[in-house]
Design brief:
Layout: E1 2-7, H1 19-26, E2 31-36, E3 49-50, E4 60-61, H2 63-71, E5 80-90, H3 93-99, E6 104-109, H4 117-123, E7 126-129, H5 139-150, H6 160-168, E8 182-183, E9 186-187, H7 194-198
Parallel strand pairs: 1-2, 1-6, 5-6, 5-7
Antiparallel strand pairs: 3-4, 8-9
Helix pairs in contact: 2-4
C-alpha cells in the first residue's frame, strides 16, 4: 500500500514513524510520502491561502497550489484521492477494510476554512469524516485512516490479529488480563474459578 499525503504540516505525521506503523514503513510493507503543499506556492512569501469570495471569516486554500502539489505525485493513474472533511461520509470498520484493498491512496488535508471547491471537483474521488466534531485540519483524520487501513496490510500485524475481529464479527471486546495472576486482590480472567464467582 502506498500513501501520499498532501498537507501544509508534514511534521504532524512524525508519530506514525513510531511503533507498528513505523516498523511497517521500514519493512516496506507500506510506503508513506509526505508532500508539503507550501513547496508548490509560486508566491515570493510562499502564500497558500486567500480570503473567501463572498466574505466570511478565515482563509481558503488556493486551488492552483493544491493542484500543482497533486500533480507532483508520480503514477497516480490508479490512486484514490480522499479529502478529509466533516462533510464526508463517516468512517467505519467496513470502509477501512474496503480501502485496505486499494493499492495507492492520496490523502488531501485541508486547513483554515478548507480548500477552493474548484480543485476539489477536479481531483477528489471521495470525502471522508472521522466523526461528527470539528478539528483545525485534516491531518489527524489522515493519520487515523493510515493507522486503521495499515492494520489490514499483510505482514503489518501478526496473522491472527485481524482474523479474530472478522470471526467474532463485532468490535466489542472483552476485558483483557495478563500477569500477575493477582493484582489489588483481584484475579485475572484465566484463573477465576467457580468459588471466586460464587463468593464462597
Ligand atoms: C476540510 C474542510 C475533518 C478540512 C473543512 C477536518 C473535522 C474533520 C477542514 C475543514 C476538519 C472530521 C474548516 C472544518 C473549518 C471546520 C471550522 C479541517 N474537522 N474545516 N471548520 N470530522 N477540519 O473528519
Amino acid at each position: 500500500m502506498k500513501f501520499d499525503v498532501l498537507t501544509l504540516f508534514p511534521e504532524m505525521f512524525e508519530p506514525l514513524k513510531t511503533s507498528i506503523i513505523g516498523r511497517a514503513v521500514q519493512k516496506k510493507l507500506i510506503e508513506l510520502n509526505l508532500i508539503n503543499i507550501r513547496d508548490f506556492s509560486k508566491d515570493k512569501h510562499k502564500k497558500v491561502d486567500d480570503t473567501p469570495y463572498g466574505g466570511g471569516a478565515g482563509m481558503v486554500m488556493m486551488p492552483e497550489v493544491v493542484y500543482d502539489a497533486y500533480n507532483s505525485i508520480q503514477n497516480k493513474e490508479n490512486a484514490k484521492v480522499i479529502y478529509l472533511t466533516p462533510q464526508g461520509k463517516t468512517l467505519n470498520q467496513e470502509k477501512v477494510i474496503e480501502l485496505s484493498k486499494e493499492e495507492h491512496i492520496i490523502l488531501l488535508c485541508g486547513h483554515y476554512e478548507g480548500i477552493d471547491q474548484r480543485v476539489l471537483d477536479e481531483i477528489v474521488d471521495e470525502e471522508i469524516s472521522i466523526g461528527d466534531y470539528v478539528l483545525t485540519g485534516g491531518e489527524l483524520p489522515a493519520m487515523i485512516l493510515i493507522d486503521s487501513i495499515s492494520r489490514y496490510i499483510k505482514g503489518v500485524l501478526k496473522e491472527e490479529s485481524t482474523n479474530e475481529e472478522s470471526f467474532s464479527k463485532n468490535l466489542l471486546e472483552y476485558p483483557q488480563y495478563t500477569k500477575p495472576e493477582v493484582f489489588k486482590r483481584k484475579k485475572g480472567a484465566g484463573s477465576v474459578t467457580i468459588s471466586d464467582t460464587m463468593k464462597i
